[in-house]
Amino acid sequence: xxxxESISVTGLRxxxxxxxxxxxxxxxxxEWDRNYLEPIRVMKARGGLETCANIVFAxxxxxxxxxxxxGNAIFGGGHYQFKVAVITGSVMVRGAVTALxxxxxxxxxFSPRDWERAFHHVRLHSTEFKRILAAAVQLRARIDNVDVLxxxxxxxxxxxxxxxxxx
Length: 167
Hints:
Blueprint: E1 4-12, E2 15-22, H1 29-45, E3 52-58, H2 65-75, E4 83-87, H3 91-101, E5 107-110, H4 115-121, H5 129-140, H6 147-160
Parallel strand pairs: 2-3, 3-4, 4-5
Antiparallel strand pairs: 1-2
């Protein structure tokens, strides 16, 4: 399995969403490009990023400086229109995202217990939370060792009153 995976969710009130998860392994440039940047490029080609967003479940070790540079070029290169919420239990990752927010004011980090705030940051409506949960379950089947994703699925299932899906 890859160290980073993503799923696109379309038809949301705020537009399209790329739901992404990565484990604590170092991301190769190929994985970063194929499993994260390519879905963003496709979304951008369909009509721009103004009505799109990204939720990231990050275990740790984010993208390298080179990979961040490639992402910034796609996201707006100084004129950011793409909202990003990074959900992580890592204080180090949250600090790195805060530093990134100095350059991209639309990216914010959230602790796993603040997943609802993260969802509102990317303009999701509470009526869409169950769709995101279903996409997260599909994402979990495609990637290993992302505890923050598993914790979100359990917490969201309880909050939304749905049976937690089995792993």
